[in-house]
């Protein structure tokens, strides 16, 4: 099998794993608060990545500040996503999180004054229409989970823009390791303020899976795969993530599928693809943002 085909398969499996874990995480949030879950998940993944980065000599003092900046965005964004997931379905959370793709050109314009293309504006119109449909119409009142998840998408968009800049200046493995560890450490004090629950077998399995598979290994797969496919191709393949989340939620948890949700999901998916196929999203795989 050609390397290109293997890379495509690796990206597809990564997107599927990210999507599937929305339902896994949703199902344990009534037994463990988001803060300790974030602490265990990101600390474990950070230690694994840091071990690799240290062996490569990629952790330096100069990357601490940019890595901490990225880590702060991931921590707040992932906290908003996980807290929001307590109030909305995994499918809804995944598609709203996917709006980060549409937000990237606007975040780029905000930070670096990059001109917003006509395609980005078209994608934003599709995204707004899709979000409105998913919420049940523009006259419907958004839920707290919707607001938190859309806020998370904006922060993830900022993360992509900044990581594209920082990844050209610092070693990517070291940059990823420090920011992932930062997320875990940032969650530590907040974990002491929420109810404490025993770590059951199911909770431990989900923590291990999300830390090892969907953070550490997914990062490694992305790093390798994106060297063998174009950025546009990778971005379009990764748009499968919210689709995988919906399929998992429907088949595993029996989530009902409404017409407004389907229309909204298709519009948001179209917005993601239109935005990404403009070949402007530059990412090095260092964004550990997903479920």
What does this structure look like?
With 291 residues, the protein is mostly helical. It is 74% helix and 0% strand. The chain contains twelve helices and no strands. Helix 1 packs antiparallel against helix 9, helix 3 packs antiparallel against helix 7 and helix 4 packs antiparallel against helix 11. The longest helix is centred in the first third of the chain and has 26 residues. It is globular, with a radius of gyration of 18 Å. The protein starts with a helix and ends in a 15-residue tail after the last helix. The relative contact order is 0.24.
From the N-terminal CA to the C-terminal CA, the straight-line distance is 30 Å
Please report which band the strand proportion falls in: under 5%, 5-15%, 15-25%, 25-35%, 35-45% or over 45%: under 5%
* Number of beta-strand segments: 0
What is the N-to-C succession of helices and strands?
Answer: HHHHHHHHHHHH
The rounded Rg comes to: 18 Å
Q: Helix/strand-derived class?
A: mainly alpha
Q: What quaternary form is this?
A: single chain
Count of separate DSSP helical elements: 12
Sheet with most strands: none
- The chain-level mean pLDDT equals 87
Uncertain ranges: 279-285
State the share of residues found in helices, binned by percent.
over 70%
Shape: globular
Task: Describe the SSE topology.
Layout: H1 3-28, H2 34-55, H3 64-85, H4 90-97, H5 100-112, H6 118-134, H7 144-166, H8 172-191, H9 201-225, H10 231-238, H11 241-253, H12 259-276
């Amino acid at each position: 099998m050609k390397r290109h085909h293997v890379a495509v398969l690796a990206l597809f499996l990564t997107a599927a794993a990210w999507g599937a874990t929305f339902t896994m995480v949703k199902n344990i949030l009534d037994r463990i608060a988001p803060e300790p879950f974030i602490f265990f998940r990101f600390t474990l993944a950070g230690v694994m990545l840091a071990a690799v980065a240290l062996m490569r000599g990629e952790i330096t003092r100069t990357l601490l500040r940019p890595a901490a900046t990225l880590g702060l965005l991931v921590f707040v964004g992932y906290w908003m996503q996980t807290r929001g997931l307590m109030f909305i379905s995994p499918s809804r959370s995944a598609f709203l999180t996917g709006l980060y793709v549409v937000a990237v050109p606007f975040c780029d314009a905000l930070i670096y004054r990059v001109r917003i293309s006509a395609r980005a504006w078209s994608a934003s119109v599709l995204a707004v229409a899709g979000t409105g449909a998913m919420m049940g119409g523009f006259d419907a009142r958004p839920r707290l989970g919707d607001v938190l998840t859309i806020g998370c998408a904006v922060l993830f968009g900022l993360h992509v823009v900044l990581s594209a800049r920082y990844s050209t200046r610092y070693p990517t493995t070291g940059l990823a390791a420090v920011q992932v560890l930062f997320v875990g450490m940032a969650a530590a004090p907040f974990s002491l303020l929420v109810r404490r629950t025993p770590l059951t077998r199911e909770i431990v399995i989900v923590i291990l899976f999300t830390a090892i598979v969907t953070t550490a290994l997914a990062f490694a797969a992305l790093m390798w795969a994106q060297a063998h496919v174009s950025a546009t191709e990778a971005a379009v393949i990764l748009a499968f993530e919210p689709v995988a989340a919906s399929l998992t939620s429907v088949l595993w948890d029996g989530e009902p599928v409404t017409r407004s949700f389907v229309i909204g999901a298709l519009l948001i998916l179209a917005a993601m693809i239109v935005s990404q196929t403009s070949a402007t999203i530059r990412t090095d795989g260092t964004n550990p943002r997903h479920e």
